[in-house]
Design a protein that fits this description.
Blueprint (H helix, E strand, L loop, with lengths): L1 H25 L2 E4 L2 E6 L1 H11 L2 H16 L12 H4 L4 H5 L1 H18 L6 H31 L3 H8 L4 H24 L7
Antiparallel strand pairs: 1-2
């Protein structure tokens, strides 16, 4: 019982830390003149939380992030906060953050259980690419649907302004995550700073 309680406290602390990291990276937001959605680095924190933390902590980190923003703490891009941001053009993407964290964490755990030292490196990376890309497609879907409803435009028009301009950079973020964050995870495991479970 004691061990479980300490794990929960540890997870809560880590969730708070990664909520803060999400807030910091979200400030790297570059507005685009042709889209109501800016380029943002916040999703990198979501990926990282999903890979480095337990599933509970990863999802909780993004729930905390959204909660802080909703009550007015300026954690969203360009130091904004409040419900007006969540119900604004980027709301669909923001609300997808906990879902993305859950999906990545869930499937990474599933494939990790089936892997061993003999698992082909390229196969492992392709699986990771597929998982993160799939999770990111859910973010695209939620964000696009939200834009379509909010701006009263077709889903296809929302795709053009809310997805197409970001595909190349988002792919770069995913590749960075696969090679940098997973490498970091392995090193933290070897140092005993991260649970192997």
């Amino acid at each position: 019982m004691k061990s479980r309680a300490s794990i929960n406290v540890h997870e809560m602390v880590l969730a708070g830390v990664f909520a803060s990291i999400t807030a910091v990276l979200s400030q790297v937001a570059i507005p685009l003149p042709f889209s109501p959605v800016p380029i943002s680095m916040g999703i990198l924190a979501v990926y990282s939380a999903a890979i480095l933390l337990s599933r509970r902590a990863a999802v909780l980190s993004q729930v905390i992030y959204l909660f802080l923003g909703a009550i007015g703490v300026p954690v969203f891009g360009n130091f904004r906060g409040g419900l007006s941001v969540i119900v604004g053009p980027t709301g669909g993407y923001l609300l997808a953050y906990p879902i993305v964290a859950f999906v990545i964490s869930y499937f990474i755990d599933k494939i990790t259980d089936k892997e061993n030292e003999n698992t082909n490196y390229i196969v492992r990376q392709i699986k990771r690419l597929f998982i993160i890309s799939f999770a990111h497609s859910l973010l695209y879907a939620m964000g696009t649907l939200w834009l379509s409803i909010l701006l009263k435009i077709s889903f296809q028009e929302a795709l053009i302004i809310g997805v197409v301009p970001f595909i190349v950079l988002d792919f770069v973020k995913i590749i960075f995550t696969i090679f940098a964050i997973f490498t970091l995870k392995e090193r933290l495991k070897k140092l005993g700073l991260l649970s192997s479970s």
